[in-house]
Design brief:
- It is a single chain.
- This protein is mainly α.
- The radius of gyration is 19 Å and the shape is elongated.
- It has a domain of 61 residues.
- Helices cover 74% and strands 0% of the residues.
């Protein structure tokens, strides 16, 4: 089990690192980058479910539920964005037309 102080340091380090990485990505690349990294959202969702499973107090359970809810929405939204992006690259011609 990780102590609360270490968990806080890890959270702060992850938040800072994530902000630094994303802030350096050009705006034009945000959609392809995020839609191509749906596996990261899945890992976050699994981590939130594990944290929710180990929650012992009602406050921890509420925070864990919010984490699972937001992680699931983020992963599902990534797949929706990927589908919309792939639709843009499909040919607009019908198969029978020349």
């Amino acid at each position: 089990m990780i102590s609360g102080e270490i968990a806080l340091y890890l959270f702060m380090l992850a938040a800072f690192t994530g902000h630094e990485i994303i802030s350096r990505v050009p705006v034009i690349l945000h959609t392809p980058l995020m839609s191509g990294s749906n596996f990261v959202h899945g890992i976050v969702l699994v981590g939130a479910m594990i944290a929710l499973g180990e929650a012992t107090t009602p406050v921890q359970q509420v925070i864990g539920f919010i984490g699972v809810f937001l992680g699931a929405g983020n992963a599902a939204g990534g797949y929706v964005v990927t589908e919309r992006m792939l639709e843009m690259f499909k040919s607009s011609k019908k198969e029978g037309a020349k």
